[in-house]
Amino acid sequence: MEVLTIRGGRPLAGTVSVCGGKNAVLPMMAASLMIKGKTVLHNVPPLSDVESMSRILGCFGAKIKRENEDMEIDASALTFRSVPEEKMKMIRASNLIWGPLLDRFGRAELPYPGGCRIGLRPMDLHFKGMSLLGVAIEDRGGLIFSRGYKRKGTTICLDYPSVGATENILMAAVRADGSTVIRNAAREPEIAELCLFLNRCGASIRGIGGDALFIDGVRELRGSEYTVLPDRIVGGTLLLSALISAGDIILNNIGFDQLSNVASKLAETGAEVTIDEHSLRLKSNGRYRGVDLRTMPYPGFPTDLQPPFTAAMTKAAGVSVIKEDIFEHRLEFCSELKKLGAKISVDGRIAVVKGRTDLVGAEVEATDLRGGAALILAGLAAEGCTVVKGVSYIDRGYPAVERCLCRLGADISRSEK
Ligand code: UD1
Fold it and tell me: Model's pTM, two decimal places?
């Protein structure tokens, strides 16, 4: 078992180029199953979730070549099969192959996906959308059997702007007969990226970036190339690490379009935040205010940054009230933060954080990806040594996290325990 050992108390400073976005690349990899040819993706982050998705594509015979941050997926010749349960359970985003499989084979047989245990994560919205497109779905003892050779364009109004449901329905609709409208679609930037990528492959999607997507079914998709945008969640986590460590970090490839919602919340703390089109800087003297936070679908504050934000509030002056509105179990990492001395009380989806606490190093365990990032941030600000277990969760979304933070002046090492 690997652990990260953090010696806290060092301010993080420097300029960073943020890696490509995990939540953008995974749906594009899934979409490559729809293309009888080669998909080339650039700026692909070296993450275990990307490896898991590669293995899933490999089940169908897709050939994947990787060189540094470039990935070529050749899905010219695929064979239909059911995905082994252990592969589906590795990541939540495995469910994104549903739409592409319906497109490619007219049918799919999938176990339910896995992923971080941050809430119930049902798939009812995916089911509803697929049914409206004319897909017949049957749950046979935990396996989703679906048939949708002839999908017919229709209007789908999502009860909630789910990211995964929007992406899955979108992919199933791209080559359906006629036009599909997805209303109350999720507006996360990664959805816009998927639309742009699909349009480059020959799809016809309008309304990109808005809450209504208009998809005119096309006959053919062709292979194409796409450069994945930087990861706004990794970028936000780095800014929060500058905030909590009294540091000064510049992100040199991510700016207004992707992180203005987060930048404005960070500025409320009193930290110096400078944003322009392509860069974002946060300078902190360590004396910042606590602010309240509520997570929301985009353009609200992202749930994926709530755990590191909550960690940063332990060192803020005053009381911060954090409301997690997207995933019902996404405050569980707070019990680990308390082991470092954080004063947090959690009641359901609400955490009340009392600052400014002197955190002291201890042994803690990550049980999900972003909760793991919160523990690292707290470790950066704690006195003495913090040992973080459960590193495999963190590796799912932060490439070589210790190397990235060490380059900025942190003292973190990875070892076997
Ligand atoms: C994606 C992101 C994840 C992020 C989340 C919210 C990827 C690979 N993952 O996850 O990092 O935290 O968006 O921004 O892009 N829901 C239902 N029924 C459904 C689908 C979802 O009730 O059929 C609920 C979920 O339980 C959750 C909420 O909707 O409470 C948001 O989920 P969703 O937007 O679907 O998130 P994911 O696509 O799983």
Answer: 0.97
